[in-house]
Amino acid sequence: MRISPLHFKAAILVFALFVVTCGQSRGPQQNPAAPVPLRQSPPDPNKFAVIINGASGEAAYATLFAEWTTNLNKTLSTRFGFSPDHIKLLSEKPEGNSLRATAEEVKRTFDALKTDLKPDNVLFLFLIGHGSFDGKESKFNLVGPDLSAVEYNALLTALPTKRIVVLDMSSASGEFIKALSAKGRIVITATRSGQEQNLSRFAGFFVTALNADDADADQDGHISVLEAFSYANRLTAEYYARGGRLATEHALIEDNGDGVGREKAENGEGLLARATYLDSLNYEEAAASAATAKLLRDRTRLEGEIEQLIARKREMSETEYEAALERLFIELAKVNRSIKQAGS
Fold first, then answer.
1. d(CA 41, CA 91)
2. pLDDT at residue 287 is higher than 80
């Protein structure tokens, strides 16, 4: 039976609304009224973290950075299964087992990681403090001489593992994405450029996300890197809106190796972060996560094909265009249904 153009357009509109609805369900609060409590992770020998609390410049900033660093360190070890001896802490004023946040200590820490890490381990690097950008070079402020984004990339590239998550939560950090972008690497920055140089509060909200049950958007009892990023991003925006202030920071994520950061998961961005968790998964959960990750990749691929098809509409006959678009929307609906079933 031949579908009239009017009925076809109506059907396409229904499919489009379905796709939009599914996309909106990925937000930071899918069901805030009844969050599933996050599970306590067992110690995981495959996870490592380096936390660098850089030079503060002022007493008020020193207090703020120290609070965020302490809370992050505690959350990683008590809630997310990071063994305390796998967390390397460098700070402006070291206490206990922490080291002084100097360029030399940072280099020594990464030299030690060359021996400690195995290819299948995952490393999280957290930078908390101030950053700088002079128009050419982006740096993270340390005690004494600073290290540039290019130098951090060299330190990371020399490690045996390529499973690396970098969270530069400092001011002016946006330029780090260009230097640190690599296949298999997740890079998050607190700002979208080196020009956003005011104090960044993203780090504090990211730590809040790690301790918030409703940050678990898909309600599977685990927090992915993407979920924590999205939740912290929302809290940051709300902070400025609530105070009637112009936002001076806009966090970015880059995990597909193209060197372009985005403020949300789109255009193939966020797939690796969605399948990378702060906590640990057992075998069954890891298998389910891999299957869901494939479905998510399929969804992104189909969404991209739809966008490309719409852009080529003038080059095609109406019959050919409608048939191709209908096929893609049906495939997308099936994938979205499978994703929904996997999360239920």
1. 26
2. no
